[in-house]
Amino acid sequence: MKKTEKRKYDHVRICVEKNVRAEHNYWDDVHFIHQALPEIDYDNISTHVEIFGKKLSYPLVISGMTGGYEEAKKINENLAIAAERFKIGLGLGSMRPLLEDSNTLETYSVVNDYNIPLLMGNIGAPQIVGERIDDIISLCRDLKMGVLAVHFNYAQEIVQLEGDRHVGGVLEAISELAGKIAVVAKETGSGIVKDVAEKFVSAGVGGIDVGGMSGTSFTAVEYYRAHENGDYVRAEIGKNLWNWGIPTPVCVIDCRDLGVPLIATGGIRCGLDVARAISLGAAVGGVAGELLKFALKSAGAVIEKTLTILTELKAVMFLTSAKSVVELGRKKVIITGRLREWLEGYYGKDLWERVLRER
Ligand SMILES: Cc1cc2nc3c(=O)[nH]c(=O)nc-3n(C[C@H](O)[C@H](O)[C@H](O)COP(=O)(O)O)c2cc1C
Q1: Structure pTM?
Q2: For the residues 118-134, what does the mean pLDDT come to?
Q3: φ and ψ at 186, to 5 degrees?
């Protein structure tokens, strides 16, 4: 196994074997107001959304996880079968292994056997600088990716022994890419707030996956990898930065008025979490880690878990009297606990409630 492929394998293995979750899931601090009389029939609820010009039956995407080594093919296929079944979006993991070795193609292209409304390619920010833009675009074309997610994961890169910390030229490269394909700027667990998102939007991105803190922590994943490799310096940094980042709900609230659709990935576990993300301003929720162990098992297992998420989302829409996703986005929510403290700290004690109300 090549170095990059082994790393992708390690990430999946560690994510299912160890606890790599952020210590607190900030979605738990978002509460709906129950409607005893929903005033809509459950069967009349519409869960459809449109994003990047594609129609999804539910406001959910499976966020990019893997590709590039043998087992990844099965994982991507199992996810693809569920994405086709429910007509939701699907992201691939980083295509870096494919840029380095064309023999890994099938571990990605397997998703092309399925009819999925939105497919997203994926590449790391440091990899888009230089000569590679044309190669990346042609990979996206070959794999029929309507959108390319460029991921920013510098917290992970800084803990990772072989991490790529190259930043210079990234915005210019995004601009060039955005002239050729719809680009989503994506964090992987540390979050994006407005001032950074504005730079991406100015560079031409068509959407932001805020990728905030609350779920899978890649500094935690790299903590385990460093430990296994006897690198105790990086292990300690990974441990101390385990909860590094901006809670996903804060990112959604902060970025929601930029005029581009938001994907809320980071800590989404269930349909209630997807509904919470929509209510704060996301266009769709993104789920990764929660589906991984099912994807390793079988397509049927992913289908069952996804069905649970989507049925629960519709249940929350019913109980909040939201007959469409747009209506769900207008529902008032109550913020408590640590998320409230974060918002007070970020916007100021007097301002945060106004920010929440203003849409
Ligand atoms: C095993 C694994 C591999 C991942 N690989 C990638 C990747 O290659 N590119 C990327 O942008 N994000 C990657 N992610 C990050 C996810 O897309 C997502 O942003 C992150 O896990 C937070 O979502 P979660 O809390 O639902 O897991 C990966 C996640 C997991 C669990």
Answers
A1: 0.97
A2: 92
A3: -130, 125
